[in-house]
Write a structure and sequence with these properties.
541 residues; 3 domains; 18 helices; alpha+beta
């Protein structure tokens, strides 16, 4: 134990040692000084235990802390508590810092307690043996008791937090009001992001003071746009809380008020920068003697200043939002302009390619004209294929002479034979109604599942656009006579229709030509053979 009674006066040997150390006296000189002053009292048995009033002796060792010990080496609650207290501080606290801070804190507490008739004593001086021993015990006139601890060796692990929770529960069980003051070394505050770091052990020291209630009410009265800035879409609890950090050498206490998330309490948002209060103002008792006030007279000014900060933040965000909206609009306009330019470029490129193709086609046409000097360009109806009209007429005559037989039938007789043949095929009874028979033939051709309806479009285009020598003799219906051939190809292939009869059908359809039927049979036969080759269905003509 560090305290003993000398003629009913408490002698705190640890406090005396600290005072000498502050004066710069080394430990050996302190020992000699205490021996000179108190050794004879110890030898005569004048020192008594403050708890059991038994004789104690003074023990001074240069290697260990100075203390008092029972003369008969027996123990009492005081000595047991002191032993427990000593073990606690050695394992959990920064001993030099704690020792100095505790002495400063005791000085201020003694001054405050004297005015209120409150008894202050060391925690190990309690009359009962304690499992956890506080730094100080305050006994109020109404019987209420506080257990005050100054924490310097805060650890971040859960084991320390559980130990601190057990200490708090033990104090409450002994009917103490637990008060924890954390050294300001552990205050981790970042102003730019309004954040204070709180570990599990510190959560046990978080308070809800009267000033915290006033801050909570102040928030509830703020405008909605400031509320939005404050919470910033975070699940923060709207109840303001605070934590106090003790700076003994500066003789002040820093209070941080904050909001935290309900499920993750370590995620915090501070309301205002740390409020620094002189220790003599902060460590005043509240009206119910349940805690210190931790407050300053300028709290309302702090609230208004904080409100202005929120207004500035809101204005800044609004300005940023408008700038971003303007920037998005500019980007959209630039994108539209780029798209427009790309579209114009694409159209110009297409136009260039189109003109280039026309130029190439024109050059090819001119080259072809240069190669065929005999071509007579006066016959516009006959497409040029590389041979002159005179050459094509000669070709036709040779082909007709070799492929056609002498046919002396008159045109009228051939027409009647064709009508008779088609009438017999369709089982018509009236042979004299020539006009009706002609309509039957045309109707049959249109309704039949003809070749045109069966072949793909690309092949149909290829067949219709194929050039045949002699097709220039057709005066009208350049494409129509080919359609008639395609419609009738199936019955030509089956041998139920001759090309001469097909030529008569063309006349019925209004196809005109300037040559005789014998001459016109050549392009028709040539076209029928071409279709047969393409479809791999050779037709016997």
């Amino acid at each position: 134990m560090n305290i003993a009674l000398l003629n009913d006066s408490e002698i705190d040997i640890e406090k005396l040692c600290f005072e000498y150390e502050v004066q710069g006296i080394d430990r050996k000189e302190i020992k000699n000084h205490l021996n000179d002053k108190y050794r004879r009292f110890s030898q005569k048995g004048d020192f008594r235990c403050v708890c059991c009033n038994e004789r104690v002796k003074m023990v001074l060792s240069e290697e260990k802390v100075f203390f008092f010990r029972h003369f008969d080496k027996k123990s009492c609650s005081f000595s047991e508590n002191h032993k427990t207290y000593k073990n606690q501080k050695e394992s959990l606290e920064d001993k030099p810092k704690h020792r100095a801070g505790k002495a400063i804190l005791r000085t201020y507490l003694e001054g405050i307690c004297k005015l209120k008739n409150i008894i202050i004593k060391d925690g190990y001086g309690h009359r009962n043996t304690l499992s956890f021993v506080p730094d100080f015990i305050l006994e109020f006139p109404n019987g209420q008791m506080w257990a005050i601890d100054y924490i310097t060796g805060l650890k971040t692990d859960s084991k320390y937090a559980k130990s601190l929770a057990k200490r708090r529960d033990a104090y409450i069980k002994q009917q103490f009001t637990p008060i924890f003051l954390i050294d300001r070394y552990w205050m981790a505050y970042e102003h730019d992001i309004n954040y204070v770091s709180i570990v599990e052990g510190e959560l046990l020291c978080v308070k809800k003071s009267k000033q915290d209630y006033l801050w909570t009410e102040y928030i509830s009265r703020m405008e909605s746009h400031l509320i939005d800035v404050l919470f910033d879409n975070k699940p923060l609890n709207r109840s303001v809380k605070s934590i106090a950090y003790f700076a003994p050498h500066e003789r002040e206490i820093s209070i941080i008020r904050f909001l935290h998330e309900e499920e993750q309490q370590r995620k915090t948002k501070t309301l205002y920068k740390p409020i620094t209060i002189p220790i003599d103002k902060a460590l005043q008792f509240n009206s119910t003697y349940s805690d210190f006030i931790y407050s300053d007279e300028d709290e309302e000014n702090y609230m208004e200043e904080w409100r202005k900060e929120l207004e500035q933040e809101y204005n800044l965000r609004e300005s940023m939002r408008k700038q971003q909206a303007a920037e998005r609009k500019r980007k959209e306009e630039r994108q539209k302009e780029e798209d427009r330019k790309k579209e114009e470029q694409r159209k110009r490129e297409e136009d260039r390619k189109y003109r280039e193709n026309l130029r190439i086609e024109e050059e090819e046409r001119k080259k072809t004209e240069e190669k065929t000097m005999e071509y007579d360009g006066s016959i516009e109806d006959i497409p040029f294929i590389g041979r002159s009209e005179r050459q094509m007429n000669s070709d036709l005559k040779r082909e007709i002479a070799s492929t056609t037989k002498d046919n002396n039938f008159k045109d009228s007789y051939q027409y009647k034979q064709m009508i008779r043949h088609m009438t017999k095929y369709f089982e018509q009874e009236d042979e004299n109604r020539t006009e009706s028979k002609e309509k039957k033939i045309i109707s049959w051709r249109n309704e039949r599942n003809s070749l045109i309806k069966r072949i793909p479009t690309w092949m149909l285009d290829e067949l219709l656009n194929h050039y045949v020598n002699g097709e220039g003799y057709f005066i009208n219906g350049r494409m129509k006579w080919k359609e008639i051939v395609l419609h009738s190809f199936d019955i030509l292939y089956e041998g139920k229709l001759t090309t001469l009869q097909l030529l008569e059908m063309m006349k019925i359809e209004g196809i005109k030509f300037e040559q005789s039927d014998k001459v016109m049979l050549y392009p028709v036969n040539e076209y029928v053979r071409y279709i047969g080759r393409k479809l791999k269905r050779e037709v016997t003509i």
